[in-house]
Amino acid sequence: MQSLYRTVMVKKELSRKAKLSIYRIRELCQQFPHGITDQVIQNDMPHLEPQQRAAAINKLLSLGQLDLLRNSSGLLYRMKDAQSASKMKGSDNQEKLVYQIIEDAGNKGIWSRDIRFKSNLPLTEINKILKNLESKKLIKAVKSVAASKKKVYMLYNLQPDRSVTGGAWYSDQDFESEFVEVLNQQCFKFLQTKADMSRDSKQSPMVQRNSSFATSHEVWKYICELGISKVDLSMDDIETILNTLIYDGKVEMTVIAAKEGTVGSVDGQMKLYRGVNPVIQPTGLVKTPCGLCPVFDDCHEGGEISPSNCIYMTEWLDF
Amino acid sequence: MTAQEVRLCGLLLREHFGEVVEKVGTHLLRSGAQNLRTIIHETGLPLDLVKKSLCVLVQHGACNFRSGRKGPGCPTEYQASGDRILRILRYPRYIYTAKTLYGDTGELIIEELLQRGHMTMSSTVKTVADRLTQNMEGQGRSMDYSEVTSAFSKLVETQFLQRCPPMGGARNTKDSGSPPTPSTPATPGTPASTALLTPESFPDCYKVPHITLIGRGKRRHSSDDGEDQKSAKKAKMDPETHGDEGIYWQVNFERFHLHFRDQAVISAVANKLDQTCSEIVRTMLRMSEVTTSPSATCTKPLSANEIFRSLPASYNILRPILDQYLTLLVDDPMEFVGKAGESGGGMFVVNLHRALANLARATLESAVQERFGSRSARIFRLLLRKRHLEQKQVEDFAMIPAKEAKDMLYTLLSQNLVQLQEIPKTPDYAPSRTFYLYTVNQLPTARMLLQNCYKTVANLIERRLFETKESKRLLEKSQRIEAILASLQVSGAEPEQLTEVEEMITAPEKQQLESLRLHINKLDSAENQVDETMFLLEAYVSSTATSTA
């Protein structure tokens, strides 16, 4: 439901009838806190003409006591929070507009350029209003982790969403690589000890292999119990760490079907991880200096860099 | 042939056959098939030297000749085969394999055949028996010909040796106008092959001829040196026949390569899983040695019952345990073994091409890891798995900070290990509206690494030659001193004279000689190690070629 605003300044003498209708509408709103439609008002006061109804609603809107919302079936009028009504007292309509836009952006926040598009206000105005609201501690600016220069605005008391802060791996916009490394090694050690234990148990090979597997849930529990993490890590976080271990070639993963309700299963599947050994020893090429040489492409016989005067070879031969 | 391959072939030819052969060989490799006149003209060497070099190359199977392409009446053309010359690098590995499989006898047979190129069975047997007898001098025994013959027959049975294809249509009996081929029998071996016939297309390829060879190896006494030479000359002109004239044998390199490939797969299984699994795979490969063609994707299906019966006696595992191991092998993500059916307790195949691809991939990953670090290796493996990724996705999956990930990606890109794929959103390839995806193509990267291997081996050989040249003076001096010492010892000199001669080499010179020896050994062993990588990559590249053909 979107809020629509019409900043209409109506300066008219309110007749007694109009005042009555205003009070009535307000009571109706209080009766139905979820909001009332035009139809409800009409049913209640059938004698009220549409024009007068509209005028009454507009008056309430401009006083800031009603919220105008739209849903699929039409317009809704809702009583505004007394508290929020008091907050906005003293701000003018433009600020209210901007505030509303920011509120709608939820915990993802909204960029100042987007605010400008939505409210059609000039940039200078927007900046003034944003500064104003910030000083009143109604909104705050959060630096986005994706683009470090971009600032998104959101309501003061909201937690920024993970996509903005980067989640558990970022603290103050800095990627915590040491933290990730530590977690990496801990998970690997856990899986490796499990695999070694199962290998030493000398049971039948099937049992050995199955006991060397660990579900992602087990790894998550182990990491939580280790207590090396200051933030709470979810199972998804642990799975991203385990994926990096797969890309390191130290761990392999299988997926098995699991009954719904067993601990750790997601959508009837469970991911199992197992520490593995590398398939080959480091290949022969890298045991020579040429395999690691940074100027390999520039080397040829008779040139500045050649096998005959290669300093890497000299060092390697004297090793 | 690429420039690196030609360079390496030139160095190998120079080391084994001399500079003249090197010149002719590299010229042929660079220019393709040519006739004798053109070779003489372009290399500037005299006729008899060119003839002799061609003889040497043909003797070792590195050069083929055939009638000219322009029709009858054209002089014969010679073509060098670079692959065969590169095999020279692998000779130590072949000899070592023969030693492990067939003992010293087998080792010497293979060594003789590799050195001579083509030989008859009887001459091989005699030479090897003589050499073995010399080695056994201290024990007072001599080697019987029959032992060597049986070892030879065993080698032929398991197809490690094969007959050279006999002189076929290349003899030009039809067109009498053509000049006789220059490489006619001044040399003991006259193999010929047209470009189409392989040794295996002849039915008698692996048939051992019946030869009459009775006797024992001759011991060589140093006093009999003069006599020996005379008798050697006599033997050449001696019309002693043994029943196998004209049947020449050569080493079957393809069979050795299959053996190496099997060994690589077995050791990979042993590393990844455990010893018992590797024994099972070894049994399966042994059973399919002769039934599987060299370019097959996987071995013929073997039933679990057969495998159980053929396991070596020392591994008495129960039948259900074997089934469990087989299931484990099938479930492994590396897919070494696959299940092909359910009859006979389960039919299993070894996936050869897939195993080679996995080994090649592990080689690439190891090369990246050693050269660029484990985080770059993580990015490389990530791209191998996920095929195409944007830069942001690479950073997220690999959990590496953005700046460092960018740096590593660009380094890998500059070394051509990673490629960039552009997907435009708009018809003009505007950079802000194009997706840039990073990807790794395994086959081209493997080929590039293979070329690097060739260059590396060439570098190592050149360094070795350089080191020897630097210390040439010192080496000559030490050789002279050794000769003096030996002659003094034989003539019974006193110990003081010996020590006096020994002291002619000063201590720092001795040290220098020692370090030179260490260097040369290190370079030699490095060449062999790089050759192992080369073998894996070549096998992988050729396996993909045959599967797409």
Automatic annotation (TrEMBL), chain A:
GO cellular component, one term: RNA polymerase III complex
Range of residues in the leader sequence: none
Keyword line: DNA-directed RNA polymerase, Nucleus, Transcription
Presence of the UniProt keyword Transcription in the record: yes
Subcellular location as annotated: Nucleus
Xref: Pfam families: RNA_pol_Rpc34
GO biological process, one term: transcription by RNA polymerase III
Oligomeric form and interacting partners: Component of the RNA polymerase III complex consisting of 17 subunits: a ten-subunit horseshoe-shaped catalytic core composed of POLR3A/RPC1, POLR3B/RPC2, POLR1C/RPAC1, POLR1D/RPAC2, POLR3K/RPC10, POLR2E/RPABC1, POLR2F/RPABC2, POLR2H/RPABC3, POLR2K/RPABC4 and POLR2L/RPABC5; a mobile stalk composed of two subunits POLR3H/RPC8 and CRCP/RPC9, protruding from the core and functioning primarily in transcription initiation; and additional subunits homologous to general transcription factors of the RNA polymerase II machinery, POLR3C/RPC3-POLR3F/RPC6-POLR3G/RPC7 heterotrimer required for transcription initiation and POLR3D/RPC4-POLR3E/RPC5 heterodimer involved in both transcription initiation and termination.
Family affiliation: Belongs to the eukaryotic RPC34/RPC39 RNA polymerase subunit family.
Function summary: DNA-dependent RNA polymerase catalyzes the transcription of DNA into RNA using the four ribonucleoside triphosphates as substrates. Specific peripheric component of RNA polymerase III which synthesizes small RNAs, such as 5S rRNA and tRNAs.
Protein name per Swiss-Prot or TrEMBL: DNA-directed RNA polymerase III subunit RPC6
Organism encoding this protein: Sphaeramia orbicularis
UniProtKB/TrEMBL annotation, chain B:
Location(s), subcellular: Nucleus
Domain RNA polymerase III subunit RPC82-related helix-turn-helix: 8-65
Record-annotated RNA polymerase III Rpc82 C -terminal domain positions: 151-359
One biological process term in Gene Ontology: DNA-templated transcription
Disordered, as annotated region: 164-201, 216-241
Domain DNA-directed RNA polymerase III subunit RPC3 winged-helix residues, every copy: 364-440
Bias type Low complexity, positions: 186-199
Top-level taxon of origin: Eukaryota
Keywords: DNA-directed RNA polymerase, Nucleus, Transcription
Pfam families: HTH_9, RNA_pol_Rpc82, RPC3_helical, WHD_POLR3C
GO molecular function annotations of the record: single-stranded DNA binding
Keyword field contains Nucleus: yes
Segments of skewed composition (Basic and acidic residues): 222-241
Subunit structure: Component of the RNA polymerase III (Pol III) complex consisting of 17 subunits.
Protein function: DNA-dependent RNA polymerase catalyzes the transcription of DNA into RNA using the four ribonucleoside triphosphates as substrates. Specific core component of RNA polymerase III which synthesizes small RNAs, such as 5S rRNA and tRNAs.
PANTHER family linked to this entry: DNA-DIRECTED RNA POLYMERASE III SUBUNIT RPC3, RNA POLYMERASE III DNA DIRECTED -RELATED
Name of the protein described by the UniProt record: DNA-directed RNA polymerase III subunit RPC3
Species: Sphaeramia orbicularis
Name of the gene this protein is made from: polr3c
